[in-house]
From TrEMBL, chain A:
One of its GO terms (molecular function) is peptide transmembrane transporter activity. Pfam families: SBP_bac_5. This is ABC transporter substrate-binding protein. Transmembrane segments: none annotated. GO terms for cellular component: ATP-binding cassette (ABC) transporter complex; outer membrane-bounded periplasmic space. Residues 77-414 form the Solute-binding protein family domain. It is found in: Periplasm. Residues 1-25 form the signal peptide. It comes from Roseicella frigidaeris. The keyword Signal applies. Belongs to the bacterial solute-binding protein 5 family. It comes from the Bacteria. The lineage of its organism: Bacteria, Pseudomonadati, Pseudomonadota, Alphaproteobacteria, Acetobacterales. One of its GO terms (biological process) is peptide transport.
UniProtKB/TrEMBL annotation, chain C:
This is ABC transporter permease. Residues 77-266 form the ABC transmembrane type-1 domain. Its main location: membrane. It is a multi-pass membrane protein. Gene3D superfamilies: MetI-like.
Length: 520, 320, 271
């Protein structure tokens, strides 16, 4: 407020008149002194609905919905609604014991039955939990008991995914649709103006220590420049989704702190290995060698260390191979590899194979992440230099899974989140399953990888897990079913008013409950 | 008396017929196009509902089954038309909320924006136009005209960007985004108003110039009224008619402007919703927003017809 | 919208037509001869020269991918004029032909076409275009077709109204009675009278289409990369607005200049 000039001040007085009626109906938390300060979070991702299976990530991030377990900064499972958990020797029966005295936001008690009901819904929808080999879900005293069909070591991580969030029975209408988000978290919903705005207030019956921030607003701003300017004008306390170019500018602003945290997300090229263009390893290696990762990372992402020499970034621990040589661009070798695969340059400089077919492929990408079209355009020019003609098609996020199903995808540039489940194994298991996957390999199987992953699913001994993980990463690196381009960082601009901000690399929570105002 | 009522009713009835046609056209075009579009609808919807990280074939299959997208097209269209008649626009395929409810929220924001932009454009455009009309052929006229010509040549998004850079990034007077208070309303409505003022100043100038040169005003002056009073009493009323008539056309421009301005500033109104719904293949929402926008234009035109009739009853007689 | 009334006003500006013609000639020269003269490939990237300021190597600087702004602008201007010319030609032919048909035939055909045009007019043009181009995103012809679908109405209404009054004139009626062919009457008596007003409409139409295409590209519903398009270039360069304002604002300046040239030329015609 301090930074605002006169017109904004006048606006602040008039603002309530503009609010939707729902917000007016809000009741106070009953606390003694009323703290008027409202924390504002601005992000690009819209609120797509109330169902935790779908737009649930917004509600877990804002501290409205909680899961049985959560993840710490390294992705290890920690207690949340469940205060402890155990698994039998066979790795099949898991027991999660709920904290005593838990309350939903409507005041009703959190029972194991309510938790099981929410988990059953998750099992029936397209969630991470639905991919786990769950056989039965039961209640036993204060425990939720999950029986598996086969050992599945990352069940705790899957339960920390937002899709496994626990809602009160009163959240659902008669038809089973979510009509209100009644969760258990430190904050409860005050008003939702989907898809643009969510306002929450502190929930005084939460099980944890009382948070200092009493009210917060999640605001969607689609335009990157608008988001940056909202950080600069002091209109927002936390701004997510900063463009690399604006980050540099915001860093020079003394009123802001800009933090970039490495996250387990990679920009990768998905290849159709059944197509005549990518069926041989030589062709894939040639493409790999033609990519100027350093240039892309420096010019477009403004951080040379994001150039991806392998699929998973260093912060994923065992999934990262420590002693790989850096990936250098090598056009002569790329050309030689292509020649060995039977591709020779035609009169127009584009490669042709022995049947005279031109090396022309469509690269499909989408603009949900604004850097992807720019990277696609850069790749287009770089592949052109080795005689590969690329046609870029920019569409919707869903084009990649759709074209995968149609089997018409040739090349896809995408941003893949390996932290959907806080253990990357959860995502790797589906992405590189033998039958291929929408966001992973296409027409590629490797028996050794399949064996390693299958053993990882059940393995519990740390040493064995480490060896298997490294083995799986090495196979992915050698075979290149997908070609890594660049890793990612989560950039946040933090305003001066707020302190104790911890950025969760797994993006499960904003940890509003830990934040403090800088001035009392 | 009966004749009088008919004079008022006739243009309104014809507008009503137009409204019905617009509804039908929007409904059918929207429907036909959305179903012929490339990109499986269920996948698009899943992308919006599940978010970009988790959309996959399973999510799409869940969407398809839940929404009954497999039924015959003709059946879906008939169903939609039947429901429109009962003012039921269905539920948004993405959020699952009733379309009418979403429209109510969006329309509120759009009305705020338009409600602010129109007076603002009048505030900017009319004085300039009147000044130009009174000093026609001299420098104020040329200056206002040049300004209007320039403003019309600049794309609305560039105007918005320029204002955003100047007023919020450089001078820090106004917030660049958001939709929570009056301050956030200023930038988008100013962008919209400047575009509109280019048109309204011209119309005002034209009318004032015509009236100023007409015998009515000469007579008023001869009657001994001062120049100011003459313009106020006789000039403005006569000048108002063409201004109103062009206002109708201008309002269509307003609707287009709203699409761009709302998208640029992230203002959660109906234009923003329409662009989004098209991306997401949310057919009911596309039809709903397009319908409301089309009907809105017809309604505004009808209001303009009516206003012209009230200001100048002779027009009705001529038309009849 | 309402290009005609606006045109009458523009004519009041001294030397408007001359200025418009000069500006248009410059831009057309840049767009038509430029791509051929400038050797740089508009798609050629040099990531190390990202956002290079104007200088010896890049006369107008480089964009975020290190592509020559000069080459890209030349190609974009050419595309803008080609696309808008094509669109206006299609809309003008369709609208004029239907207008003449309605005026000549009268009766139910006239009423039907007028009803259709009224209905289309009641729909915001951009709405129609948005719906149509969703068919084939990123392609030029559907884009032109979609815009033409909204634009023909203006030509239709003006042609129909003018042709009706022209057809009622004694010398035209006489020619009809004397048995002159439809082609002769339309070609020799009606169209020459219509030509000036159609010219003005076309001029404003081209300006309008340039604006529409740039706007659509700006909200990323335009053409696919690496096509250089003025609106798309602006939206690509948006994140770099603070770092390279010159390169980011240049495309918008070209849009404004092109539209201005069209308006001045079309509106500045002496009557």
């Amino acid at each position: 407020m301090r930074r605002r000039r006169l017109p904004a001040l006048a606006a602040a007085c008039l603002a309530p008149a503009l609010r939707p009626v729902a917000a007016q109906a809000a009741t106070g938390t009953g606390a003694g002194a009323v703290d008027e300060r409202v924390l504002r979070i601005v992000a690009p991702i819209e609120i797509g609905g109330l169902d935790p299976a779908r737009s649930g990530f917004i509600f877990t991030r804002m501290g409205v919905v909680e899961t049985l377990l959560a993840a710490d900064a390294e992705g290890r499972p920690v207690p949340a609604l469940a205060e402890r958990w155990s698994v039998d020797a066979a790795g099949l029966e898991w027991r999660f014991t709920l904290r005593p005295g838990l309350r939903f936001h409507d005041g009703s008690a959190v029972t194991p039955g309510a938790a099981v009901a929410s988990l059953r819904r998750a099992l029936a929808d397209a969630t991470a939990l639905a991919r786990a080999p769950v056989a039965t879900l039961d209640v036993a005293g204060r425990d939720v008991v999950i029986r598996l069909a086969r050992p599945f070591s990352i069940l705790p991580a899957v339960l920390a995914n937002y899709g496994s969030g626990i809602l009160a029975p009163a959240s659902y209408d008669a038809a089973g649709h979510v009509q209100a988000v009644i969760g258990t978290g430190p904050y409860r919903v005050l008003s939702i103006t989907a898809p643009m705005r969510l306002e929450v207030e502190r929930f005084d019956l939460w099980w944890g220590p009382r948070p200092e921030i009493s009210r917060a607003i999640y605001l969607v701003a689609g335009q990157g420049e608008a988001r940056a300017a909202m950080a600069e004008s002091g209109q927002a306390d936390l701004v997510f989704g900063l463009h690399p170019a604006t980050m540099a500018r915001l860093r020079r602003n003394p009123a802001l702190e800009v933090r970039a945290v490495a996250i387990p997300r990679s920009r990768i090229l998905k290849l159709n290995l059944a197509s005549p263009f990518f069926d041989s390893l030589a062709e894939r290696q040639a493409l790999d060698l033609a990519i100027d990762r350093q240039g892309i990372a420096t010019a477009l992402l403004r951080n040379p260390s994001l150039a991806a020499t392998q699929l998973l970034p260093p912060m994923t621990g065992d999934w990262h191979l420590a002693d790989l040589p850096p990936a250098e661009r090598d056009l002569p070798r790329a050309r030689a590899l292509l020649a060995s695969a039977g591709w020779t340059p035609g009169p127009d400089g584009i490669l042709r194979d022995r049947q005279g077919r031109r090396f022309r492929v469509v690269l499909t990408t989408y603009s949900t992440w604004p850097e992807l079209p720019a990277i696609a355009t850069a790749l287009q020019a770089q592949f052109r230099e080795i005689g590969v003609d690329v046609d870029v098609s920019i569409g919707n996020t869903s084009d990649i899974p759709r074209l995968h199903r149609d089997v018409t995808l040739e090349l896809g540039l995408m941003s893949r989140n390996y932290a959907l489940v806080p253990d990357p194994l959860g995502t790797i298991l589906t992405d590189f399953a033998p039958q291929g996957s929408d966001w992973g390999a296409m027409h590629w199987t490797d028996p050794q990888l399949a064996a390693a992953l299958a053993r990882l699913e059940g393995a519990t001994a740390p040493e064995e897990r480490r060896a298997l993980t490294q083995r799986a990463s090495a196979i992915l690196h050698e075979q290149r079913p997908v070609i890594p381009i660049a890793w990612s960082e989560l950039a946040v601009a933090i305003g001066r008013r707020v302190g104790h901000v911890a950025i969760d690399p797994f993006e499960t929570s904003y940890r509003l409950q830990d934040m403090r105002w800088r001035e009392p | 008396m009966g004749g009088n009522a008919w004079r008022v009713l006739r243009p309104l009835l014809s507008r009503l017929g137009q409204a019905g046609l617009v509804a039908l056209l929007v409904g059918c075009i929207g429907f036909a196009l959305m179903h012929a579009l490339p990109g499986d609808q269920a996948f698009r919807l899943a992308a919006e509902r599940y978010g970009p990280d988790i959309v996959d074939a399973r999510a799409a299959a869940a969407m398809r089954a839940e929404l009954g997208l497999d039924r015959p097209l003709a059946l879906q269209l008939l169903e939609w038309l039947g429901r429109v008649v009962r003012l039921d626009l269905g539920r948004s395929l993405v959020t699952g909320e009733p379309v009418i409810q979403e429209l109510r929220v969006q329309l509120g924001y759009t009305a705020l924006l338009a409600g602010m932009a129109l007076p603002l454009s009048a505030l900017i455009g009319l004085p300039l136009g009147i000044a130009a009309g009174l000093w026609r052929g001299r420098w104020p006229d040329h200056a206002v005209l040049s300004l209007a010509v320039l403003l019309r040549a600049v794309p609305a998004y560039a105007l918005g960007l320029a204002l955003m850079v100047l007023l919020s990034v450089r001078l820090r007077w106004l917030p660049p985004g958001g939709f929570e208070g009056w301050a956030e309303l200023v930038l988008p409505s100013l962008t919209l108003a400047l575009g509109l003022a280019a048109v309204s100043s011209r119309v005002a100038r034209e009318s004032v110039a015509a009236v100023a040169a007409s015998p009515v005003l000469a007579f008023a002056r001869w009657k001994g009224l001062s120049e100011r009073d003459a313009v106020r009493r006789h000039g403005l009323r006569n000048a108002a008619i063409p201004v109103l008539a062009v206002l109708g056309l201008q309002l269509i421009g307003l609707v287009e402007g709203i699409l761009i301005v709302e998208t640029l500033f992230g203002w959660p109104g109906i234009g923003h919703a329409l662009v989004h719904a098209i991306f997401a293949r949310d057919v009911p929402l596309v039809q709903g927003t397009a319908l409301i926008m089309g009907l809105g234009v017809v309604l505004l035109n009808a209001a303009v017809d009516l206003a012209c009739l009230l200001i100048d009853p002779r027009r009705g007689r001529q038309a009849a | 919208m309402s290009g005609l009334a606006f045109g009458r006003r523009v004519a009041a500006l001294p030397c408007a037509r001359l200025a418009g013609a000069g500006l248009l000639l410059l831009l057309l020269g840049f767009g038509l001869v430029g791509p051929w003269l400038i050797e740089a490939d508009p798609a050629r990237q040099d990531l190390m020269a990202s956002l290079a300021p104007p200088g010896a190597r890049f006369l107008l600087g480089a964009d975020h991918l290190g592509r020559s702004m000069l080459a890209r602008l030349a190609h974009a201007v050419r595309l803008s004029f080609l696309l808008s010319g094509l669109t206006v030609a299609a809309a003008g032919l369709l609208g004029t032909a239907l207008g003449l048909l309605a005026a000549w035939e009268g009766g139910w055909l006239d009423r039907g076409l007028s009803l259709l045009s009224d209905t289309v007019l009641a729909l915001p043009g951009l709405l129609l275009v948005l719906l149509v181009i969703a068919f084939a995103p990123g392609q030029i012809l559907p884009l032109a077709g979609g815009i033409a679908l909204a634009l023909w109405v203006e030509f239709f209404r003006v042609t129909r109204a003018q042709a009706r009054s022209l057809l009622a004139r004694p010398h035209v009626e006489a020619a009809r009675l004397l048995g002159f062919g439809r082609a002769y009457i339309l070609g020799h008596l009606i169209l020459p009278e219509l030509a000036p007003i159609l010219f003005t409409l076309a001029g404003f139409g081209i300006g309008g289409v340039i604006l529409t295409v740039a706007t659509l590209s700006f909200i990323s519903i335009g053409l696919k990369p690496p096509t250089a398009e003025l609106g798309g270039m602006t939206s690509e360069m948006l994140p770099y607005l603070a770092e390279a304002p010159f390169q980011a604002l240049l495309p918008s300046l070209f849009v404004a200049l092109a539209v201005l040239a069209c308006h001045l030329l079309a509106g500045g015609r002496p009557r």
